[in-house]
Amino acid sequence: MTFSKKVVILGSGPAACTAAIYAARASLEPLVFAGSSWGGQLMITTDVENFPGFAEPILGPELMQRMKGQCEKLGVKMIFEEAVRVDLGRRPFAIQAADGSEASTEALIIATGARAKLLGLESEKRLMGHGVSACATCDGPFFKGREVAVVGGGDTALEEALFLARFSTRVTVIHRRDTLRASAAMIARARRQPKIRFLWDNIVVDILGQGDVHGLRLKNAKSGAMQDFACQGLFVAIGHTPAVEFLAGQLKLDALGFVEADARARTSVSGVFAAGDVADHRYRQAITAAGTGCIAALEAERFLAGHE
């Protein structure tokens, strides 16, 4: 199947849906390659209580279903396949999907998101959203008065720990080495926080609990000794991987591998815009992703108007 569109959007999270909504309302008739795992990271999130407009918490999948329904009501065409290849060497840009579908477009919005790096444990997958999280800003308030652990050793892990210290009674940073990779300033901040402690040379090999988390099984990286560690939550903070494999080096990336985009969502290729977590390693929030999706669509509309 082949399409020719003024705007094509890659992704299916808040950034992609918002971009699609704005593009559709501008009569651009956007095409969205939404991927096979639709909905982004909100699909593995339970209660969302920080998205404006919802006085009561809303489940992440329900929020994404509402965004999808709004797109469909506006006539947005969605193909639930991954984009596996793009050609940004000339306009119209060419996109090829996993099922063989192809599209050409005058403006491209990349909103493919980023995946949290996880530990790869079966228990981690089973308890994700039920005591296991990869986002303290999203889920930290649900752990008020509880003891939690953060696994990681970089700036992200300490940022998560500092945020969690506002709510939790104790935060233990678990690191597989005896020194942190974080910046000196971040280490100093964490050490000044009395609720934060460090557990060195330990690896999380299992998460204990059925319906929720009640502890971790740890292995000492030096001695191999095993121990159980009691806590009521685990935050995995070992980094994120942006979904940029299909770009094959055609866009400028930052030092961490995220798409480099300016405040107007413009990338290094004219007519290509980036929104959401694929271009944001700092905030990674549904609302910031939606905001940049709006910006990308408005800028795409202006770009097209200037190149008619």
Q: Name the poorly predicted regions.
A: none
Bulk shape: elongated
User: How does the major sheet shape up?
Assistant: 7 strands, mixed
Averaged pLDDT, please?
94
Give the beta-strand count.
19
Distance from N terminus to C terminus (CA atoms, Å) equals 26 Å
Instruction: Quickly give the structural class.
Output: alpha/beta
Strand % is 25-35%
The percent of residues in helical segments reads: 10-25%
Count up the helices.
7
The H/E string reads EHEEEHEEEEEHEHEHEHEEEEEEEH
What is the CA-based Rg, rounded? 21 Å
How would you sum up this structure, described in words?
By secondary structure, the chain is an alpha/beta fold. It has helices at residues 14-25, 60-73, 122-127, 136-139, 155-164, 184-192, 286-306; strands at residues 2-10, 31-33, 47-48, 58-59, 77-79, 83-87, 93-97, 102-110, 114-116, 132-133, 147-151, 170-174, 196-199, 202-208, 215-220, 226-230, 234-236, 240-242, 272-274. Strands 1, 2, 5, 6, 7, 8 and 19 form a 7-stranded mixed beta sheet that branches. The chain has a 5-stranded parallel beta sheet with strand order 10-17-11-12-13. It has a 3-stranded antiparallel beta sheet with strand order 14-15-16. Strand 7 and strand 8 (102-110) form a beta hairpin. Helix 1 (14-25) packs parallel to helix 7 and helix 5 (155-164) runs parallel beside helix 6 (184-192). The mean pLDDT is 94.
